[in-house]
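Lab notebook, bench 4. Still working through the backlog of constructs that have no structural model yet. Next entry is a single chain of 329 residues. Request: give me the structure tokens for it.
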Amino acid sequence: MKAYVLKDGSYQFDTVEKQAPRKREVVIELIASGLNHRDLKLVERVPSEGKKFVLGSDGAGIIKEVGEGVEEFKIGDTVMINAGLNWYDNTSAPPKDFEIVGVPFAGTLAEEIVMPVDFVAKKPSYLSWEEAGVMSLAGLTGYRALFTQGQLKKDMTLFIPGVGSGVNSFIIQMAKAIGARVITTSRTQEKLDHAKELLGFDRGILTDSNWRDQLKNETIDLVIESVGGLTFNRSLEVLRKGGTIVIFGSSTDDVTELNLRSFFYGQYTLKGSTMGSREEYLSLLAFIEQHQIKPIIDQVYPFEQIKDAFQYLRNQQQLGKIAIRFPKS
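Model written out:
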């Protein structure tokens, strides 16, 4: 079958063998998949000389085959893929055998994927194929950062730098669904205005503005950071004393300086977060269905144009997610 792979240090189309399901596994014919920034970074992190890895972590499709012992699904069921493997219960950190779908395991940028049945879920009927295909990784990452780690509640104020990413757009929607106040940033006023129409946040400020001056009259209870070294200390400056900052990513520098005396005098709490458990994933699905939350999709590319989709993601101009649609669908 046709797949988009990491091979010999580059991304390319190739063919891979179809696999039969083993015990407690299912074969899913993919209808739509989604791109993530993780996909861009794998070429730098994973040695691939003489190897072939199918890319992609997000996807939705139709059960094509079921292995021995599978009773939860039948052939023809419409499903979504939980990208976080082997993490079952909502624990303080993932288990040692936690992995993410797509490199080194087979990913979702192919015509089919074999998945453990425990990490497959029924597709909510109100989601389109593209919406279901891009939701899981970003949605789960945002849900854990916001509710498990951030403990956001109604009437709290959240500050989240960078409105454009798929995770951040989910976080904003979920925070607004429970009645929180949300403040975000963007590099351009045009993007802020467009994002506010789609996401309904309360206030947006420009990335290059003076955040301390802009937000001096706000009481920010929670900051969720994913930009990294470029903004971490600026975010900390606007957080109220005793507040919490959660970091789930670092799209700029991984290393930053931290004034420890200011930090402990401020009584701040710093938490890391990444992906989430199966328990949280099922809670996420119940939450979005209750509030009828849909992912924001910026662009949909046919599978044959996936190289263009990757370039669009590299340019970092998107608002929301990038979906891939397979031709047979």
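Notes after review: The longest strand covers residues 25-34. The radius of gyration is 20 Å. Flag for follow-up if needed.
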